[in-house]
């Protein structure tokens, strides 16, 4: 493999058979494979000249970075072994038209004639030196130059990798399909700048762009991104002409001052325009007013801010993330006129850098120049700071080398040097390998490309600060898809730490929406979100969800507090107190009856039905605790079961008793035979059958509509959201409650009817009249319940009133039954035991006779019975009723 020693490539004058052109301003380095290079060695020329003054950093530093990279690659045995990379490097002179003319050199080998039709005067064949074939191009720097050159290179399928062109339009893969770049496009930079502006809460900014692809595309990308993200408006968009006239920058400053609230200025301008713009602002005495946000063309450069540091103080600038390459520093400061003859512009750089002349004749008296001694040293006798794009130039060269290496491994496996398949090199195939790259660059950062040939966006954010009269660029953050900013390290003009404002209207207070002023999207009026509305976004008030209410400042919704009947509430204390007293009284009666179970009074009361009735009364009282307990599936299920069951059992037992009495006296008026189903067992069957209807109905209800607890937000939804409450309750509507209690009411009404019918039985007949009084009182209670319960359906206290009314009504019904039917018996048993003795038994015949005589002699026997013997009908099988003859059937 051919290896070049560093600095040994001779400076050559290249003359090609290109009609009408002689290329003097180029560097040629021989190699097996040649790469093209485009660098702005000189600035744009004036007065008809294509090139102007030398650009030390952007030109020479970047050019030398390519040479440095070629030396490293050619000395690397692992990258393109036995293959030497050469180069053809051109000066674009910072002008797109000149660059286009120069870049024709790269396609000469593809369109040159072979010369077979040319004959010398002597008849012999001419000696022709064919131009080398360029397989790929590194560059250019300016986006406008890259765009112009890319249009030519794509025609000949020559891949191009730029180290500095960031215009967004170069991402168009349909127009610039052979263009790639190791720097991110300005769309990322624009997004980063939008993120900075939004992070600082600046919503009213101006933009300034240098005329051309870079400036105009950058500002367009910023405006587009700001519109997509929202929240940022453009006050002024000013463009600096390509050839600005005198006073042009003063005019720009005057336009920027038209809207004093828009203090932030977004800059996509070249460094010369930035310098002149800052100077114009300084002349207009605007120091400290404008807040500059500069693109990577400003970056961390010193030249735009020299002698106008105070005007630039506080400027926020952005630069692709980079690192200083120490190896290049060692390489560059070691360059001399002797060891760097391959760079044809290095002598001009030497004179410019050391302010001397190589030729004694060029030194004029009084010019202040001296003759160069060739003993000067870079970094020692002159200032040196590595240019910001050096890293990317090296990465671009390495990207081309890695792509060629991968292509060689694919097409020439195991072969030394180039093979036939790589002669010539197919540009389309090479482009495919470029787009597939993913390797670590010179600074350790990954080098890769997306489908459009763009590198990922990674930026460092700087701020120009003055501390202790020393100005410097300080890194304050970075951006890689997301912004990371250290606001605490920022400093604004005058040493102020507080972020300056750049807004049209003051922000609305929390809970207020912005009503945009027509035609001025960054200016607004503030309107309060009221009622159940909250501030959904900057411009909208929305209603909270039905289970939510706005928070105190209407910036969001919070859950509506959930309430239920608490045990400590007065609405619960009273029903619970009544229920506890009732349960204690019921248990007392039960214990008394059990204790005196065999006494005549207990027997005469019908023990079986009495215990059933007492069970129903107990359940009525116990229902109070279910109604006050916190609702859940279990509690709601138990409410359905026991709310109606207790009353159904009670009224079923009472109905069975009254029906039995009625049938006995009704039968007695027509026959001496005993009615059917009047035995205790029959009475229990009838009672449980009647009560089971309630259970069957509840079971059907469970199947059709399973129990569940719900939160009713309409029950206590007030006009004032602060007073709104959600009521935790069982899913039982008022109609369902009526249906649940309806059967019990039916039993109660039926029992009342029978009580009325049996009101005329003998006075001493057990329980007929107490049952009647019980039912009359119960009816009055429930008649009072209905208007109270349904009349409060619209009240905010509905839950408390209805629950308390229902539980007290049930407890009072139970208390009436307990008090009228059993307390007199308990009183006799405990305090008048002398009355708790057997009375003379009366046979069924005597009962029938009494009933018959009562009906015969007194038609109004229902009002006051007459002819009643002073005997008592035994109503219990346990009462020892002795028949006097076998034909008499004792009735229990």
From TrEMBL:
It is a multi-pass membrane protein. Keywords: Cell membrane, Disulfide bond, G-protein coupled receptor, Glycoprotein, Membrane, Receptor, Signal, Transducer, Transmembrane, Transmembrane helix. Residues 571-845 form the G-protein coupled receptors family 3 profile domain. It is found in: Cell membrane. Gene3D superfamilies: 3.40.50.2300, GPCR, family 3, nine cysteines domain. GO terms for molecular function: G protein-coupled receptor activity. SUPFAM superfamilies: Periplasmic binding protein-like I. InterPro entries: ANF_lig-bd_rcpt, GPCR_3, GPCR_3_9-Cys_dom, GPCR_3_9-Cys_sf, GPCR_3_C, GPCR_3_CS, GPCR_3_mGluR4, GPCR_3_mtglu_rcpt. This is Glutamate receptor, metabotropic 4.
């Amino acid at each position: 493999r051919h290896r070049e020693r560093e600095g040994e490539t001779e400076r050559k004058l290249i003359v090609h058979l290109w009609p009408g052109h002689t290329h003097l301003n180029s560097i040629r380095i021989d190699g097996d494979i040649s790469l093209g290079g485009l660098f702005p060695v000189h600035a744009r020329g004036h007065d008809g000249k294509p090139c102007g003054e030398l650009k030390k950093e952007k030109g020479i530093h970047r050019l030398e970075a390519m040479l440095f990279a070629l030396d490293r690659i050619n000395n690397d045995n692992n990258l393109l072994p036995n293959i030497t990379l050469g180069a053809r490097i051109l000066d674009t002179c910072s002008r797109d038209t000149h660059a286009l003319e120069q870049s024709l050199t790269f396609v000469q080998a593809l369109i040159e004639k072979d010369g077979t039709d040319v004959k010398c005067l002597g008849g012999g064949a001419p000696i022709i030196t064919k131009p080398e074939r360029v397989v790929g191009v590194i560059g250019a720097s300016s986006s406008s130059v890259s765009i112009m050159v890319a249009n030519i290179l794509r025609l000949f399928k020559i891949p191009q990798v730029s180290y500095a062109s960031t215009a967004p339009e170069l991402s168009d893969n349909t127009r610039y399909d052979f263009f790639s770049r190791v720097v991110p496009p300005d769309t990322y930079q624009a997004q980063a700048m939008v993120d900075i502006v939004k992070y600082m809460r600046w919503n009213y900014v101006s933009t300034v762009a240098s005329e051309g692809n870079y400036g105009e595309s950058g500002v367009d990308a910023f405006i587009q991104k700001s519109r997509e993200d929202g929240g940022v408006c453009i006050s002024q968009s000013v463009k600096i002409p390509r050839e600005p006239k005198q006073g042009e920058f003063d005019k720009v400053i005057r336009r920027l001052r038209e809207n004093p609230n828009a203090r932030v200025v977004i800059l996509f301008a070249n460094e010369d325009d930035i310098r002149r713009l800052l100077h114009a602002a300084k002349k207009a005495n605007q120091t400290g007013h404008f807040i500059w946000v500069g693109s990577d063309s400003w970056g961390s450069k010193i030249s735009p801010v020299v002698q106008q540091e105070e005007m630039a103080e506080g400027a926020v600038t952005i630069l692709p993330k980079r690192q200083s390459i120490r190896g290049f520093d060692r390489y560059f400061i070691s360059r001399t006129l002797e060891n760097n003859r391959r760079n044809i512009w290095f002598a001009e750089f030497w004179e410019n850098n050391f302010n001397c002349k190589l030729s004694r004749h060029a030194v004029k008296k009084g010019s202040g120049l001296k003759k160069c001694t060739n003993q000067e040293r870079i970094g020692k006798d002159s200032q040196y700071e590595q240019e910001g794009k050096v890293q990317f130039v090296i990465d671009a060269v390495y990207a081309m080398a890695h792509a060629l290496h991968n292509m060689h491994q694919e097409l020439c496996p195991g072969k030394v040097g180039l093979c036939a398949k790589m002669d010539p090199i197919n540009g389309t195939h090479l482009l495919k390998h470029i787009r597939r790259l993913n390797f670590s660059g010179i600074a350790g950062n990954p080098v890769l490309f997306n489908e459009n040939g763009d590198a990922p966006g990674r930026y460092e954010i700087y701020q120009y600060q003055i501390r202790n009269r020393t100005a410097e660029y300080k890194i304050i953050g970075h951006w890689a898809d997301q912004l990371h900013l250290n606001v605490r390290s920022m400093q604004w003009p005058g040493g102020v730490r507080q972020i300056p404002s750049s807004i049209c209207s003051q922000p609305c207070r929390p809970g207020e929406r912005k009503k945009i002023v027509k035609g001025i999207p960054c200016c607004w009026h503030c309107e309060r979100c009221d009622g159940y509305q909250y501030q959904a976004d900057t411009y909208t008030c929305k209603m909270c969800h039905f289970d939510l209410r706005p928070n105190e400042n209407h910036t969001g919704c919070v859950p509506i507090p959930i309430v239920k009947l608490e045990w400590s509430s007065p609405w619960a204390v009273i029903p619970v107190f009544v229920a506890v007293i009732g349960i204690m009284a019921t248990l007392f009666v039960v214990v008394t009856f059990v204790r005196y179970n065999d006494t005549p009074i207990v027997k005469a009361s019908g023990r079986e039905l009495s215990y059933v009735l007492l069970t129903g009364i107990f359940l009525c009282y116990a229902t109070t605790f279910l109604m006050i307990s916190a609702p859940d599936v279990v509690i709601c299920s138990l409410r359905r079961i026991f709310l109606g069951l207790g009353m159904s059992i009670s009224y079923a037992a009472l109905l069975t008793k009254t029906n039995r009495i009625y049938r006995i006296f009704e039968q007695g008026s027509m026959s001496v035979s005993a009615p059917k189903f009047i035995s205790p067992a029959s009475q229990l069957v009838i009672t449980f059958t009647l009560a089971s209807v309630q259970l069957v109905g509840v079971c059907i209800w469970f199947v059709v509509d399973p129990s569940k607890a719900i939160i009713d937000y309409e029950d206590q939804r007030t006009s004032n959201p602060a007073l709104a409450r959600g009521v935790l309750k069982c899913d039982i509507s008022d109609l369902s409650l009526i249906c649940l209690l309806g059967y019990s009411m039916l039993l109660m009404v039926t029992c009342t009817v029978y009580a009325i019918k049996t009101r005329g039985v003998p006075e001493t007949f057990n329980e007929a009249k107490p049952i009647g009084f019980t039912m009359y009182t119960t009816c009055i209670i429930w008649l009072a319940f209905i208007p109270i319960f349904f009349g409060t359906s619209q009240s905010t206290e509905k839950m408390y009133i209805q629950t308390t009314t229902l539980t007290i009504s049930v407890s009072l019904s139970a208390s009436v039954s307990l008090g009228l039917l059993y307390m007199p018996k308990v009183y006799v048993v405990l305090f008048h035991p002398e009355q708790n003795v057997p009375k003379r038994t009366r046979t069924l015949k005597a009962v029938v006779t009494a009933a018959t005589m009562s009906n015969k002699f007194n038609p109004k026997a229902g009002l006051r019975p007459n002819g009643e013997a002073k005997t008592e009908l035994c109503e219990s099988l346990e009462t020892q009723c002795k028949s006097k003859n076998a034909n008499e059937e004792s009735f229990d």
